[in-house]
Amino acid sequence: MVNDYSFLDNLELDGEISQAQSDRRNHAGDFGTRDEDEVEPNVVVFAKSTTDVSTIVSAANDHDIPVTPYAAGTGLEGNATPIEGGISLDTTRMDSVREIRPDDLQIDVEAGAIGDEVNEALERYGLFFPPLPSSGAISTIGGMIATDASGQRTVKYGEVADWVLALEVVLPDGSVIEAGSKAVKTSSGYNLKELLVGSEGTLGIITCATLKLAGRPEQVKGGRAVFPTLNDATEAISDAVTSGVDVAKIELIDDRTALLANDYADTDLPEQPMVFVEFHANHGIDEEIDFCRTIFETHELERMEIAAGEKMEQLWQVRKDITYAAEEYDPDLDIGPPGDVTVPISQYPEMIAEVRAIAEEYDFFVPCFGHAGDGNLHYFVLADYDDPEEAAHAQEAYATLVERAIKLNGTATGEHGIGVGKRKFMEREHGEAAVDAMRAIKQALDPKETLNPGKIFPPKDDSEDEDSRDESESLEIDTDSG
Amino acid sequence: MVNDYSFLDNLELDGEISQAQSDRRNHAGDFGTRDEDEVEPNVVVFAKSTTDVSTIVSAANDHDIPVTPYAAGTGLEGNATPIEGGISLDTTRMDSVREIRPDDLQIDVEAGAIGDEVNEALERYGLFFPPLPSSGAISTIGGMIATDASGQRTVKYGEVADWVLALEVVLPDGSVIEAGSKAVKTSSGYNLKELLVGSEGTLGIITCATLKLAGRPEQVKGGRAVFPTLNDATEAISDAVTSGVDVAKIELIDDRTALLANDYADTDLPEQPMVFVEFHANHGIDEEIDFCRTIFETHELERMEIAAGEKMEQLWQVRKDITYAAEEYDPDLDIGPPGDVTVPISQYPEMIAEVRAIAEEYDFFVPCFGHAGDGNLHYFVLADYDDPEEAAHAQEAYATLVERAIKLNGTATGEHGIGVGKRKFMEREHGEAAVDAMRAIKQALDPKETLNPGKIFPPKDDSEDEDSRDESESLEIDTDSG
Asked: Where in this chain does the record put each FAD-binding PCMH-type domain (chains A, B) (predicted)?
């Protein structure tokens, strides 16, 4: 069917409608989409207001045209890219801070605002938005909420979602609701806000968020600790977290990642497992750091360097460079889709052992690292993804690791969402009845499948997804992280 | 229609089916139901297992019989009592601790377990379930989750829901799902767990919960502070919270409540506004208390007494006795339905001023108190609810306060849920489009309205609820707190 977009000509918008090739191209993929998997929208709409979003969605719904919301494009699972053309609804021009209420520790900010911009606006009040993920410098508040993002500080402050009080959302019929409450707690009705969080724009388009804030900590210190074995490092982390060390970040990198990092930055770090930590406090930070050190020492701690300010940033640089280091490690090897499994923390050492075993079994170089305090593990299966046979083999290794995580009571995706890339794991993780319940909700709120069709749910008649239920079959991964 | 319950005879259950008058009577009301509003179920099923719940729900769904889950009966809004007979599904015999995983700070506990029992089971691990509400000694974990409960410690630890990782739930067709994940974070699929929290058994029946736990704090101290005026007290609270004082409880009682308490316990407390505080820490508790005191002093603090252990409990006794004190204050006056509004904390002084103004305007004695750190305010409109005219007048005063809270960006119910009593405020608070979205979800997951019919949503054709949208009309309140 060739869709007719002439209905757009009659709409009055504050923003802009574009069919320019460059705009369509710019909305065809995200950070995780391989070039050959990009799908261009037919039209890009740059919304400027909630009314714009409502107008477009309502008209598109009437005309059976799919609308896929798009923001910074930093997703990794194809969460915000079209699978069948239609309208890409770009929210990045809706980036105003509507109101800051310092006495309530609240900000109302439009969906397209970049994370760091929010913190800049809050600086003069001594406040900040604590759960910002590492991508906060480039990704939008709306995108973070839509994918249920989290990050390094989640171990102390929780996920982005935990700091969202209310959402202004445009539903598939164009109606505008406020879900949640500006009161810090409510038990009134269904938790629509929580349902919309992580729904990846398939149930509604987030146009504005009321976020909770916190005072900036007066003391910040951090650094890194070196352990002899990966097992010591993971057990030290697990012990620290369950002992209640008040740590704001606690990140693991394995010796393979240390190797990559050395190679990238031309440094001579020990090629050993390292744990990166950061502490936030208003008083007593050194006492807390000592508490942490004492626990680390019972796990064969070799060295622990702690600093503040610029020196702390230097100690952390290795952790920050990982993705670049992995990408540049070998010009013949791609990093593939970034793993994002999360397991209960007691299973973290076992999960890492699984990574090692699978890497050996499939004969790939698989550096792993991640937000260990949450049991969240990232990994790259380094392979030549241009070679179809090797790519299939690497994808199988990757998928096998996801299956193992699920078996360890974990999840396929801790913070990147499902998008297209992880659809095949939905039934394995949640069971058919739960996925059917999710489908029923989608059907109830978006009966014409106007919003972001094709995401989250495995295609019912797709043999590829059937295959994914059989571990002996090779798995197709649609996205690649470049 | 006379329903035929003979199909129950063919079901094999681990638990028990009863049509005894005493059992039916015991499941006809909750703490908030006036005797004359009680509705007996036709049958009470005491489930012993998830399979029981599934068997009953599935069969009832097939036979078009409503099922209302019931636990400790401590609800205040008729959340768990039938409105039209049917089956009362009692979960209190499902109270096992299935597993404690101290290394993961997790417990799997069945829905019927009492809050305090969970903490007793955890004691030997040095762990506890932090967000337990004040009713924790008598109410069940399942009931708390189903009504999105919270309480005094929420200001530090968050709501019950914030500590729920996963739920085992029986859906209306009898299928059993696990919603959420035992990993501490996941971004996989729709947040069914969050949707089920607070859905009051209208979308599914919770049979087991995986809860997050925390280490017991090594230091606990608390007590009370006396202020000259209510405004000083509320501003002191607001200032302490926004300044980031790490307080575990911060509760207000007004001078009217102090009067009640004196009368009840025959004490000679100052009849002035008081703020009750409790601090939890692993180190530095006195430093934190000093920080709090310094802030209180800028708001005309008159006296602050802090203690630990038994002495602390004594200081807190007044706060604990409030409901009893209010009930016994005057034999001719009933406390009516307990108010539970919550507003952004900056609006808390304004909300309390509204209570005073409305009390004066309607000429009722209205003591108020509550979880001030969250902006949550409880109040009683003391009146003779047996006198229809006075009852209507008191209900109007009560409802007017709810409307004012909503206008202050607040919510009708911070922690008691909607049930029957607060249905009339749903559209005012959320707007029609949001309530329609909630209705669509109900319809999608429970098309035959098998589970807890008549709750949360205002009856569409009920003129009483129409009236509630007009402030000039008298409002009917269906529940009363006894």
From this structure: 37-216
By CA distance, what is B282's nearest residue in A? A244
Give contacts of B80 with chain A, Cβ < 8 Å.
none
Closest to B58 in 3D by CA, of B461, B451, B356, B481: B451
Query: In this predicted model, what pLDDT tens digit does every residue of A219-255 receive, in sequence order?
Result: 999 999 999 999 999 999 999 998 989 999 999 999 9
Q: What is the pLDDT of residue B20?
A: 97
Please state, in angstroms and rounded to a whole number, the distance separating the CA atoms of residues A13 and B464.
Answer: 41
Residues of B in contact with A433 (CB under 8 A): 171, 175-177
Q: How confident is residue A2, by pLDDT bands cut at 50, 70 and 90?
A: low
Are B209 and B145 contacting, i.e. CB atoms less than 8 angstroms apart?
yes
**Using an 8 Å Cβ cutoff, are B401 and B355 in contact?**
yes
**pLDDT band, residue A331 (cuts 50/70/90):** very high
Selected residues 361-420 of chain B with any CB under 8 Å from a CB in chain A: 374-376, 409-418
**A268 band by pLDDT with thresholds 50, 70 and 90:** confident
Asked whether residue A476 is assigned to any structural domain, the reply reads: no
Is B183 in Cβ contact with A342 (below 8 Å)? yes
pLDDT at A478 over 60: no
Residue A443 maps to a domain? yes
Q: Which chain A residues have a beta carbon less than 8 Å from that of B177?
A: 430-431, 433-434, 437
Query: What mean pLDDT comes out for the span A259-282?
Result: 92
B344·A177 Cβ contact <8 A: no
Enter the ipTM.
0.94
Residues A457 and A336 in one domain: yes
CA distances from residue B404 to A418, B343, B348, B395, B399 in whole angstroms, order as listed: 41, 10, 12, 14, 9
- Inter-chain touch A187–B416, beta carbons under 8 Å: yes
Chain B positions touching A431 (Cβ under 8 A) are 177-178
Band of the pLDDT at B2, cuts 50, 70, 90? low
- Is A454 found in the same domain as A335? yes
- For residues A180-210, one letter each, b for 16 or more C-beta atoms within 10 angstroms of the residue's C-beta and e for the rest, the string is bbbbbbbbbbbbbbbbbbbbbbbbbbbbbbb
Residue B427 belongs to a domain: no
Q: Cα torsion for A181, A184, A190, A194, to the nearest 10°?
A: 90
What pLDDT, on a 0 to 100 scale, did the predictor assign at position A19? Answer: 96
Which pLDDT belongs to residue B461? 66
Residue A478 domain-assigned (yes or no): no
Residues of A in contact with B191 (CB under 8 A): 148, 191, 194-195, 197-199
Interatomic CA distance for residues B469 and B451, integer angstroms? 27
Q: Are strands B87-90 and B43-46 parallel, antiparallel or unpaired?
A: parallel
What 3 state SS string does A35-74 have? HHHCCCCCEEEECCCHHHHHHHHHHHHHCCCCEEEECCCC
Out of B215, B244, B276, a domain closes at B215
Letter for the amino acid at B281? A
Q: Are A397 and A337 in contact, with CB atoms under 8 Å apart?
A: no
Identity of the residue in A183, A243, A342 whose CB atom sits nearest the CB atom of B185: A342
Q: Phi/psi of residue B124, each to 5°?
A: -70, -10
pLDDT of residue A265: 87
A396, A401, A403, A406: CA torsion to nearest 10 = -160
Radius of gyration, alpha carbons of chain A: 22
Give me the domain span that covers residue B179: 97-215
Closest C-alpha to B208, from B415, B76, B30, B51:
B51
Q: Does B242 touch chain A (CB under 8 A)?
A: yes
Q: What's the domain count of chain A? A: 4
Task: State the pLDDT confidence band at A461, using cuts at 50, 70 and 90.
Answer: low
Tokens of A142: 């709306």
Task: Find the CATH number of the domain harbouring B57.
Answer: 3.30.43.10
